[in-house]
Write a structure and sequence with these properties.
Layout (H helix, E strand, L loop, with lengths): L1 H39 L9 E2 L3 E3 L6 E3 L10 E5 L2 H7 E3 L19 E11 L8 E9 L2 E8 L9 E11 L5 E6 L2 E7 L6 E2 L11
Parallel strand pairs: 8-10
Antiparallel strand pairs: 1-7, 2-9, 3-5, 4-6, 4-12, 6-9, 7-8, 10-11
Length: 209
Amino acid sequence: LVVIQSVYVLCICMRIRKMFIYIAWVAMVTVMGFSVTVFANGKEAPPGEISVPYKIMQMSDYQVFLKNWDETNNSVLYAMISTPAQYNDLFHPAPVMKSKRPFSPSEIFYTRENILVVARVMPYPENVDKVFDVDRITERNSELSLYYRYNERSSDAKWKGKICLAIQIPKRSYKKVHFFENGRKVGELNLVARQWLHPQRTPTPPQPP
């Protein structure tokens, strides 16, 4: 009888052990899948390049709008924001009654993250979040490359708006940033030379007293 009871207890312990192994396996697969979705979210990097994790920031995250630039001579604006001052130089607060959305990221944000920005002026689309898609962001020899798609859309809007793609990436020390739109290089920033924005904004002339 003692032997039978021991075998019974042993069987129960083995079943419990298998159950915990299965739960651990499911948890691991779930976490891995979540990581791929949140941090890889793009195409694999080509040989010799390293994939850079990123998160797309929605235009509605903050109560701001892009300041004007000469879009006639520079159809694409691109930037690498690393400080609150740069963010405030590129974006202008847009207060809305009863809205509690912030105007900008907190200062501590820039100790961990940078923001890549691409923008165009166009007849205001029905869905601003469908205008741009990220293919991948990669690094090679301390140089960053952003590959994205611009999905030009027809619109019946009678007015134009500045639509931007803002991407949150881990803070690193890069030499340059290359921007590729629909497979074609549209520009680069020389971060070593402290070039963080193109085109450079023309300062607003002071108003006469």
